[in-house]
Amino acid sequence: MATKTISITENAYKRLANLKNENESFSMVIERVTKKSDFENLKKLYGILKGKAGKEFEKSILDARKSRERLRDKRIKEQLVQWRG
After folding, report:
1. Do residues 29 and 20 touch, judged by C-beta distance below 8 A?
2. How high is the pLDDT of residue 50?
3. CA distances (Å), 11 to each of 3, 5, 7, 15, 51, in order?
4. What are the extents of the domains in the chain?
């Protein structure tokens, strides 16, 4: 693999070093922080579902959230009952 030498300021070096994980090279840090974010990839999907399909998908997401909230609330209540003895 070809390599390139670059000059960066001391401040930029310190910032990269702070981002660097133990077993990670500086090249790996640069690749990690410059890759397209999940948000950028998600923006490409904006508006892909329209009309009835979009409404149904939105409803299924909201229903799943409500279901998770109910399960969470039930678990919390059960734990409170056990805790209070």
Report:
1. yes
2. 85
3. 22, 17, 12, 6, 50
4. 7-46, 48-85
